[in-house]
Design brief:
Layout: E1 6-10, H1 16-25, E2 31-35, H2 47-63, E3 68-71, H3 74-87, E4 92-93, H4 96-106, E5 111-116, H5 118-123, H6 125-133, E6 138-143, H7 147-152, H8 159-173, E7 179-182, H9 191-197, E8 203-205, H10 208-221, E9 235-239, H11 243-254, E10 261-263
Parallel strand pairs: 1-2, 1-3, 2-9, 3-4, 5-6, 5-7, 7-8, 9-10
Helix pairs in contact: 1-10, 2-3, 4-6, 4-10, 8-9
GO biological process, one term: cell wall organization
Keywords: Cell shape, Cell wall biogenesis/degradation, Isomerase, Peptidoglycan synthesis
EC number: 5.1.1.3
Length: 269
């Protein structure tokens, strides 16, 4: 048993979709969350830059004594997960394997859409993971770079979001997909808007729930579960820019106040 915190990080707010599922499945676990709000989005960055940012975030979380780390960012997972697992002596998981597994089990007609940042789509990481499970599944990827800034602005359920979603998704709607992977942890915050545009006819795959289950399995396997099972976990938040804005938008999704939050100079790590 280990009562140290779990580290979770993302380029910004999106990782809160994963944190929400972790707190549901592992309510006794303490969590340190880092959102790299000064450098969001990661999706348009070069591979080398994303790797640098990921390692800085991991170094920061390790400095806080975390026992395991969730890379709650699809772009960082696609570009950095294997390198991070080889570099650090601590359990590290990402979000893509969980999303791919869910998509493979959800599709009925074996035509799956994947939306994500340019970095995630161009990496073809989802294709690789899905085809490990079923190489007969056809995958159609679509980069949706404006979705992240829309969420970060707090505009997820606005006309701006709906018009943008219509433009991005029209090609996928015409491709006979029956499942759509929300391949960026920001995108579940747009679920209502995306469902409206798709008229509820396509199953939306959110990797966050399966990622939380994978985390529980990793903690159990490594004997790292918190033994204070009767006590709710404590959550500490760090961001690289404008903590007030993060707290204001983040509470709308978590349905809880984000009070213990600090700004950190992530470049030092």
């Amino acid at each position: 048993m280990n009562n140290n915190s779990i580290g979770v990080f993302d380029s910004g707010l999106g990782g809160l979709t994963v944190l929400k599922e972790i707190t549901s499945i592992l309510p006794s676990e303490n969590i340190v969350y880092f959102g790299d709000t000064a450098r969001v989005p990661y999706g348009s960055r070069s591979k080398e830059t994303v790797i640098k940012y990921t390692f800085q975030a991991i170094n920061f979380l390790i400095s806080k004594g975390v026992k395991a780390i969730v890379i709650a960012c699809n772009t960082a997972t696609a570009r950095s997960l294997e390198l991070a697992q080889a570099k650090y002596d601590i359990p590290i998981i990402g979000v893509i394997e969980a999303g791919a597994r869910t998509a493979a089990y959800t599709t009925k007609n074996k035509v799956v859409g994947v939306i994500g940042t340019e970095g995630t789509i161009n990496s073809k990481a989802y294709e690789g993971e899905i085809h490990k499970l079923d190489d007969k599944i056809k995958i159609i990827g679509k980069a949706c770079p404006l979705f992240v800034p829309i969420v970060e602005e707090g505009w997820a359920n606005t006309e701006v979001a709906e018009l943008t979603a219509k433009k991005y998704l029209e090609e996928l709607q015409a491709s006979n997909i029956d499942s759509l992977v929300l391949g960026c942890t920001h995108y579940p915050l747009l679920k209502r808007t995306i469902n409206k545009v798709l008229e509820g006819k396509i199953s939306l795959v959110n990797p966050a729930r399966e990622t939380a289950k994978d985390l529980k399995d990793v903690l159990t396997k490594n004997n790292l579960l918190n033994n204070n099972v009767d006590k709710e976990g404590y959550y500490k938040y760090y961001v690289s820019d404008i903590p007030e804005r993060f707290a204001s938008i983040g509470k709308e999704f978590l349905n809880r106040e984000i009070t213990d939050i600090e700004q950190v100079e992530i470049q030092k790590y």
